[in-house]
Write a structure and sequence with these properties.
233 residues, ADP-ribosylation fold, 4-stranded antiparallel sheet, 5 helices
Length: 233
C-alpha cells in the first residue's frame, strides 16, 4: 500500500512501563545485596550492578532494569539515571536521516495522485513553468525545509491556500524516471523518528510535539514539478 493511499501514519509505541506510576528521581537500590547502581564506581562495578538488576541495553547508552528504571552508561566510569521525559534531548540525527530516506523510498513505490492549491493569479505561470521549488515564508517549524513544493494527499486540507486545485500525477513522474526527493514536514518526521526510539525504550506514553497546522497528509517535493505532470481543475 502506498504512503499516499494510507496517510494515517500512526506512531506505535507498544506496551511498556507506565511512567506516570513510576518515580524518576534518584532511587536507592537497597536489596539484600546493598547494591546502588549510581553509587557504583568503575566499569566493572557498574556492569555488575546493572547485571544484578537484570538491566538491558535498549538504545545507544540507555539501559533499563527489570524493574523498569532507566540508566545512561557508555561503558565508562560513571552512570546516571535517565529520565524518559528527556527523550527529546537525545541526538537522533542518524535515525532521522534513515527515516527520511525510507519515507522517500516508500513514497515512490506507489505514489498516486497529490494536490496543490493556489490562487487564480498564479495559474498561468504554473501552466507555463510548472510548480517551482521555492523557499518562501512558512511556519517556524518549516523554516529548515529550504526550497520545496508543498503538496497534499488530502485536497480538503489545503483549501485555505487558494480556490484553484491542481492535481499532480506522481505515477507518471515515476514512469518517466523523474523522482525528486520527497519528505515530510520537519515536526512530523522528527516525531515519527523519536517515536521509533521511544518504541525501543519501551516508552508507551510518548506523544510527538507537532506544531499546529502540520499534517501527515503533506508531501514536500524538493525539486520542481514540470507542468506536464499537472492537471488543472
Amino acid at each position: 500500500m502506498s504512503l499516499v493511499a494510507d496517510i494515517s501514519l500512526v506512531l506505535h509505541t507498544p506496551g511498556g512501563v507506565d511512567h506516570d506510576q513510576k518515580k524518576h528521581g534518584r532511587r536507592e537500590y537497597s536489596d539484600t545485596a546493598g547494591i546502588d547502581i549510581e553509587e557504583s564506581e568503575g566499569p566493572e562495578e557498574i556492569r555488575a550492578a546493572l547485571e544484578h538488576y537484570k538491566a538491558e541495553k535498549l538504545y545507544k547508552d540507555i539501559w533499563q532494569t527489570e524493574g523498569g528504571d532507566y540508566f545512561e552508561w557508555d561503558g565508562g566510569s560513571y552512570v546516571t539515571e535517565f529520565d524518559p521525559n528527556d527523550i527529546w534531548q537525545l541526538d537522533i540525527s542518524e535515525e532521522l536521516g534513515e527515516h527520511e530516506d525510507n519515507f522517500n523510498k516508500e513514497f515512490w513505490e506507489g505514489p498516486g495522485e497529490l494536490y496543490h492549491a493556489t490562487t487564480e493569479d498564479h495559474i498561468e505561470g504554473i501552466k507555463e513553468n510548472g510548480l517551482e521549488s521555492r523557499n518562501e515564508t512558512r511556519g517556524m517549524s518549516n523554516r529548515s525545509v529550504g526550497g520545496g513544493v508543498f503538496t497534499s494527499a488530502n485536497h480538503e486540507e489545503i483549501g485555505s491556500y487558494g480556490d484553484k486545485l491542481i492535481t499532480i500525477d506522481a505515477n507518471k513522474m515515476k514512469a518517466d524516471g523523474y523522482t525528486p526527493y520527497v519528505m515530510q514536514e520537519p515536526d512530523i518526521a522528527e516525531g515519527e523518528a523519536r517515536g521509533s526510539v521511544a518504541y525501543q525504550l519501551n516508552i508507551e506514553d510518548f506523544s510527538p510535539d507537532i506544531e499546529s497546522g502540520m499534517s501527515y497528509s503533506t508531501f514536500i517535493f524538493t525539486d520542481d514539478i514540470p507542468a506536464k505532470y499537472l492537471r488543472f481543475e
